[in-house]
Design a protein that fits this description.
Strand content: 15-25%
Radius of gyration: 24 Å
Shape: elongated
Distance between the termini: 54 Å
Helix content: 25-40%
Largest sheet: 8 strands, mixed, barrel
Number of helices: 16
Length: 460
C-alpha cells in the first residue's frame, strides 16, 4: 500500500492513445445505470463502512461516474483527479487525511463540498492491463489507512468491475459494434484528421481568442466571448470551421470543448487577480452538442468554478437550439442544474432554429443572442428590421437580455440602439483578440468606440 503521490507525470502519448482505444472498446461511457456496477459500489461501501463509493472512468478530459453509492458527483474534470493519481502510481492509492495535504487543491475543493476526509482508490483495468478507471471509497472522517487484507479486498472489487467491462467489450465485438466514426475531409483535403487534432491537444496548440461585448449605450465592455483557434506551428492560426467539423467526426470535440471551458475559467481568474475591477466581467463559452448532452455537465462546471476560484456569475454558457433538440429531457435537466449554479445561459444564433419560440418558453435562458445574419440585413428593408425588433421585444417581455451579434456598420449600431437592444458585439466594435491583447485593453479606462476597432476601454 502506498500513500498518494500528488504529482501526476504525463503519460507516454502512445500509451494514452492505447488506453483511450481500450476504453472506447468497452462502450461504457455515458451509458444508463446497470445493477451489476451498482451492486459493486454498494458492496464496497458496506464492506469498508464508508460513507460512499463510486466507479469512475476517465477519457481525455473528464472522469465520468458510472455508479455510486451515497453522496456523489456525476462528473469531474480529469486534471489532478483521483484517476490521474492512480494512473501516475499505476497502483492503488490511499489518502488517510485530505486536510494534511494542502497541495491537494483540485479535487480537494470538491471533496470539501461533499464532506470527504479520507479516500482509497484501486485501478479498474482492461483485459490487457490498461487502467480505464477507478473504484473509490470515501469517508467523512480521517482514517489510519487500509490494512493489507483490506487493500486486497478493494483490488478484488475493482477486478470485478474489470470483468464486467471485458464482458461488455466481448459483447460489443460479437455484435459488430461500430466504435469509430469515419473521418471527414476538410478544406485542406485529408488534413486535418483525428491524430492531427489529438497531437494539437497534447502539444497545447489550441488557444482562445476573446471578442468584447459592450453596452451599446455606454460603450463599456461588459463581457467577452471565448472563441477557439488552432495555433498550428506551420500553418499559423487555423479558424474553427476548418477543424471543428473534423473534431466532431472523430469524437474529439468533447476533450477540445472541455479544454476551452477550463482555459476560459483560468483566464477569468488571471484577469481578476490582476485587477479586482474585472470581477464584473462575464466570459461566455460555446458548448458543443456533445458537451451539452452529458447529464454530469453541471458537476463538471461546478468543479471548474471551485478549482479556478471564480464566481458563477462570471461564466456564461452559450448553446444553439440545435444542441438542445436531440434529447429534450436531458436538455431540461442540464439547463436546470446549470441555472442552480448561477451561471448565465445564452441561446446563441436565436431565430435560426425551426421552432425557437416554442423552445424559448421551455428553457431557462437569461440571454438571447440575435444571429448576425439578421443584424446584417437590418438596413435592407422593413421586414428584416421588424424581425430584429420582434426579437428584442420578445426578450423584454420574457425578462431576458439581448446581445446583437455581427455588428459591422455604424448604421446597424444606431438602429440597434434605437430598437432598445442593450448589448452587442461585432467587427465594428472589436475583432476577436488574444488574451494578452485583452489584458492590455482592460488596463486603460475608457470606452470602445463603434468604428473599425479604435477604442477607449472601460470595464467598470
Amino acid at each position: 500500500m502506498q500513500e498518494a503521490e500528488f504529482e501526476t507525470d504525463s503519460f507516454d502519448r502512445q500509451q494514452e492513445a492505447a488506453r483511450l482505444a481500450a476504453l472506447a472498446e468497452t462502450g461504457i461511457l455515458d451509458t444508463p445505470p446497470e445493477p451489476t456496477y451498482d451492486a459493486i459500489t454498494r458492496l464496497a461501501a458496506e464492506f469498508f463502512r464508508a460513507d460512499s463509493a463510486g466507479i469512475g472512468f476517465a477519457d481525455e478530459s473528464r472522469v465520468w461516474i458510472k455508479s455510486h453509492w451515497g453522496p456523489h458527483t456525476r462528473e469531474l474534470p480529469r486534471r489532478d483527479s483521483i484517476c490521474d493519481m492512480v494512473f501516475a502510481a499505476d497502483a492503488p492509492i490511499v489518502v488517510p487525511d485530505i486536510s494534511k495535504h494542502p497541495e491537494f487543491r483540485g479535487p480537494g475543493l470538491i471533496f470539501k463540498r461533499l464532506g470527504v476526509a479520507f479516500f482509497a482508490a484501486a485501478p479498474v483495468r482492461s483485459f490487457d492491463g490498461k487502467i480505464l478507471g477507478v473504484l473509490t471509497i470515501f469517508d467523512s472522517q480521517p482514517r489510519k489507512g487500509l490494512a493489507p487484507d483490506e487493500l486486497r479486498m478493494l483490488e478484488s472489487l475493482a477486478d470485478m468491475v474489470s470483468s464486467q467491462l471485458e464482458l461488455r467489450r466481448l459483447r460489443n465485438t460479437f455484435a459488430g459494434y461500430e466504435l469509430h466514426r469515419p473521418r471527414a475531409a476538410s478544406a485542406y483535403g485529408s488534413w486535418p484528421c483525428g491524430p492531427d487534432l489529438r497531437r494539437a491537444l497534447e502539444r497545447h496548440e489550441f488557444v482562445l481568442h476573446y471578442q468584447p461585448e459592450i453596452d451599446l449605450s455606454t460603450r463599456k465592455i461588459v463581457g467577452l466571448e471565448a472563441l477557439i483557434r488552432w495555433n498550428h506551428p506551420e500553418r499559423g492560426l487555423v479558424p474553427p470551421m476548418d477543424f471543428i467539423p473534423i473534431a466532431e467526426e472523430n469524437g474529439l470535440i468533447l476533450p477540445i470543448g472541455d479544454w476551452g471551458l477550463a482555459e476560459a475559467c483560468n483566464q477569468i481568474q488571471t484577469w481578476c487577480r490582476e485587477d479586482p475591477r474585472h470581477m464584473s466581467l462575464r466570459v461566455c463559452v460555446n458548448l458543443s452538442a456533445r458537451q451539452f448532452s452529458r447529464e454530469g455537465l453541471a458537476d463538471h462546471v461546478e468543479a471548474l468554478l471551485l478549482q479556478s476560484g471564480i464566481s458563477s456569475r462570471q461564466l456564461g454558457l452559450e448553446m444553439t437550439e440545435s444542441s438542445l433538440i436531440p434529447n429534450m429531457r436531458t436538455a431540461m435537466e442540464v439547463l436546470g442544474s446549470l441555472r442552480k449554479l448561477g451561471v448565465s445561459l445564452l441561446m446563441d444564433d436565436f431565430g435560426t432554429g425551426y421552432s425557437s419560440l416554442n423552445h424559448l418558453h421551455s428553457f431557462p435562458f437569461d440571454v438571447l443572442k440575435i444571429d448576425g445574419s439578421f443584424v446584417g440585413r437590418m438596413t435592407e428593408g422593413d421586414q428584416p428590421l421588424q424581425i430584429v425588433r420582434t426579437i428584442i421585444e420578445l426578450a423584454r417581455v420574457m425578462g431576458m437580455d439581448v446581445v446583437a451579434e455581427g455588428i459591422e456598420t455604424r448604421e446597424q449600431y444606431r438602429l440597434l440602439r434605437q430598437l432598445g437592444c442593450r448589448f452587442g458585439q461585432g467587427y465594428l466594435i472589436a475583432r476577436p483578440m488574444s488574451a494578452e491583447a485583452v489584458t492590455q485593453l482592460l488596463r486603460f479606462p475608457g470606452r470602445i468606440l463603434p468604428d473599425s476597432g479604435a477604442c477607449e476601454v472601460c470595464c467598470n
